[in-house]
Design brief:
The protein has 281 residues and is of the alpha+beta class. It is built from nine helices and nine strands. It is globular, with a radius of gyration of 20 Å.
């Protein structure tokens, strides 16, 4: 029996214990917005940062679609998503939990020396350490370590082993640090031509329109989010990457759009780096 076939049963079991769940599709990412909700035009889910009147019966709002309502999980409107799902995700913060996502062996060694023991779940590359208590989610609090709690989702990989401990101050302190600033390597400035005039990309309206269109293209992706993010990054860099017009603020906007679709900070950085490498920037 594949994980896809028993995903709804796992979801119903988790929901019965008060854990909000959602289906995750290929790539272990949430389903993209449906056409009616693209670009958050619906106003958003009531439990999102921007409350709204959305009545969408589907699962197109990432972590904010997570629910513990058994009738919703088993409803016909979710059935199509479960058929395409590869695994079950859950909203840790909605269940009063925090997941410390350790992505590699080095991160696990650090956690064993720095964090109180708690329930542990093996992952593909590392471990999830689960604590009782919610906090804000922060990616990359240190190398190979993400914190997933409120306004985030985690993949359900089983009940794990060990006794769940209360969320310690040492984990809260990790989130209190300033998030790392996105700082792509400097761009090589392109020649401005014999006229010596200022690069046209620096025209505020031109550059703003390009970044806004890129954000929209990412947020409206309903499938193949990984590929869409990479192609969008590639398009932005091919237009603006060699003239020095892009700033950290522009890149952060693109990363934020990608993360709103379920991409991690690491995936964003990898896609950006790969796009730059392909263009020779």
């Amino acid at each position: 029996m594949t994980e896809t076939t028993y995903a709804p049963h796992t979801a119903l079991s988790l929901a019965a214990s008060g854990v909000p769940v959602l289906p995750l599709r290929r790539g272990k990412v949430p389903f993209g917005n449906c056409p009616s909700c693209a670009g958050n035009t619906c106003g958003g889910r009531p439990n999102m940062k921007t409350a709204g009147p959305c009545r969408c019966p589907g699962v197109c709002h990432a972590w904010a679609a997570a629910t513990a309502e058994l009738a919703v999980i088993a409803s016909p409107s979710w059935a199509a998503a479960w058929r395409r799902a590869v695994c079950v995700g859950y909203h840790p913060g909605g269940a009063g939990l925090t997941v410390v996502d350790l992505d590699n062996a080095e991160a696990i060694v650090w956690a064993r020396g720095a964090l109180p023991a708690t329930r542990t779940v093996p992952t593909t590359r590392g471990e999830h350490w689960i604590y009782r208590g919610a906090m804000r989610s922060v990616n990359a609090v240190r190398p190979g370590v993400d914190i997933k709690s409120t306004m985030a989702y985690a993949r359900y990989l089983g009940p794990g082993t060990g006794t769940m401990a209360e969320l310690p101050d040492v984990v809260r302190a990790l989130a209190a640090k300033e998030p790392p600033t996105v700082r792509p390597a400097p761009f090589a400035a392109a020649p401005t031509g014999s006229g010596g005039g200022e690069c046209r990309h620096r025209t505020p309206a031109y550059l703003e329109r390009g970044i806004a269109m890129a954000e929209q293209h990412i947020t409206e992706a309903s499938s193949a989010v990984h590929a869409t993010v990479y192609r969008t990054f590639l398009a932005v860099l091919s237009t603006h990457g060699r003239c020095g017009c892009l700033t950290d603020a522009h890149v952060a906007r693109l990363f934020t759009a990608a993360q709103s679709k379920g991409e991690t900070a690491r995936h964003c950085t990898d896609a950006w780096t790969n796009a730059r490498t392909r263009l020779g920037i």
